[in-house]
Amino acid sequence: MIRYLGILQKQGVLPLWFADGNDYGRIGSGDVVETMGVHDLISGKPNAVVRVKVTTRAGEAFEIPTKHTMSSDQLKWLRAGSALNHIRSQLGKRS
Q1: Long-range contacts made by residues 73-76, C-beta under 8 angstroms, separation at least 24?
Q2: Residue 58 DSSP one-character state
Q3: Which of 43, 58, 87, 93 is deepest in the core (most CB within 10 A)?
Q4: For residue range 30-59, what is the model confidence (pLDDT) as tens digits?
């Protein structure tokens, strides 16, 4: 799995891990999962925290804290939609 993270990040995908590995078992089939705080992360807000809000089929809602390992350069790729988009935008600034 780890070797594919670089590929995902270059394509503009934000890989997240649950801060507590036990939280993986809290999500069931049919649950609705939403990310919260991604805008803060993309906007460059210092110490932005991305959380996952889970709403179960029974209607119970809870949040799960996550973590990511993206560097500041990789976050630039995310903002641009991909590494290639970021590079293209940087080349355009040099002209």
Answers
A1: 74/9, 75/41, 75/42, 75/44
A2: T
A3: 87
A4: 999 999 999 998 888 878 899 999 999 999
Q: Is the dihedral of CA 34, 22, 40, 9 positive or negative?
A: negative
Q: Are 15 and 80 in contact (CB under 8 A)?
A: no
Q: Residue 14's closest CA among 62, 63, 48? A: 48
**Residues 18/16/70/39 CA torsion (nearest 10 deg):** -110
| DSSP structural state of residue 37 | S
| Positive or negative: CA dihedral 26, 27, 28, 34 | positive
